[in-house]
Amino acid sequence: MATPTAIKASGLVKRYGDLVAVDSISFDVEKGESFGFLGPNGAGKTTTIRMLTGLSKPTAGKAELLGLDVGSNATRTKGFTGVVPEVSNLYDELTALENLLFMGKLYGVASTERHRRAEALLELFRLQEKRDRPFRTLSRGMKRALTIAAALIHNPKILFLDEPTVGLDVMAARSLRKVIKELHDQGMTIFLTTHYLEEADILCDHIAIIVKGRIVAIERPEKLKEMAIKEQAVEFTVSGDASTLVEPLAALTGFKPIIVNSSTLRCSGTTNRLLPHICRAVQDAGAEIVSVNTIRPTLEEAFVRITGLSPTVMATEKGGK
Ligand SMILES: Nc1ncnc2c1ncn2[C@@H]1O[C@H](COP(=O)(O)OP(=O)(O)O)[C@@H](O)[C@H]1O
Ligand SMILES: [Mg+2]
């Protein structure tokens, strides 16, 4: 038999009364893959994680982890998954080390092994110095790091992270991404949700874009970037009247340029492809190029185009613990 897919969602639906929070989503995550669920607040990301990890029963559809139906094998699937919720599940009064050991006990990790793992995780997350500090006294970044460490105490095969860097400062977010990347490099299967495009780009092999409970695209980040590159344009200004260049440029490039103003035109396409044509047309018209600008849409703009969402939707922050 072929090795089972790490995570398989088949027609997952979650309704809350009239609200369809997750609207029949299906996808596969292969072993060792890092898969990102990218979408704005309220898109259904947390609800999906909860169904995939057995914390919430789907209204319809099926979630499987390593070939096991989560609904009917909850104990077994919990044994090989780590879950990092949006809000930490650790205890304020326990120290960093005690929290790790307690979590290890909950997961049934034997005492010696649990101590060994806890030490290794404190080191991996650079928290050795904070080992004896109560959780509540740690900085926001350290709390998040320890919450991830705790989810790894039983050495899971699949790690679920719900918005791992939300509410963290740039440095803390960067160091957590580094650790997540290291875990991925070591072969762990990672499923993370985020509303940061950059984060999905850095960390994920595949990105599923989720909007209002539906997946609107599943692509590799490179593909998303390619889609953005296709939207490149070159804008140039000439001495004198640019409108005489519209027809010759349309003939050369196959696309009619847009008239920005009397001396400026915009052509769709990459600089490499367009520049020779522009130079030739301008020269033939006896004019001179005054300036050239490449308009390169960002990955964010590609995202906006795919989802039809305004960029401010994604920029909307929410506080995290
Ligand atoms: N327990 C619940 N009861 C009712 N509605 C819920 C519940 N949990 C989530 N929702 C709603 O489901 C939608 C998706 O929520 P959620 O999965 O938390 O989104 P995200 O994690 O992408 O921000 C939202 O409209 C949210 O208000
Ligand atoms: Mg959420």
Describe this entry's structure for a reader.
This protein has about 325 residues and is α/β, with parallel strands linked by helices. It folds into two domains: about 5-220, Rossmann fold, CATH 3.40.50.300; about 230-295, Alpha-Beta Plaits (2-Layer Sandwich), CATH 3.30.70. It has twelve helices and 14 strands. The chain has helices at about 45-50, 75-80, 95-105, 110-125, 140-150, 170-185, 195-205, 220-230, 245-255, 270-285, 300-305, 310-315; strands at about 5-15, 20-30, 35-40, 60-65, 70, 80-85, 160, 190-195, 205-210, 215-220, 235-240, 260, 265-270, 290-295. The longest helix has 16 residues, at about 170-185. The chain starts with 6 loop residues before the first strand and ends in a 6-residue tail after the last helix. Residues about 315-320 have low confidence and may be disordered. Adenosine-5'-diphosphate binds next to β2 and α1.
Query: Helix share of residues?
Result: 25-40%
Tally of extended strands?
A: 14
Main-sheet strand order equals 6-7-8-3-9-10
Round the Cα radius of gyration to an integer and report it. 25 Å
- Range of strand content: 25-35%
Total helix count? 12
How widely separated are the two ends? 43 Å
How many domains make up the coordinates? 2
Secondary-structure content class: alpha/beta
* Spans of at least 5 consecutive residues with low confidence: 317-321
Outline the biggest β-sheet: 6 strands, mixed
Integer average pLDDT: 91
Ligands present = adenosine-5'-diphosphate, magnesium ion
Second-tier CATH architecture of the largest domain: 3-Layer(aba) Sandwich
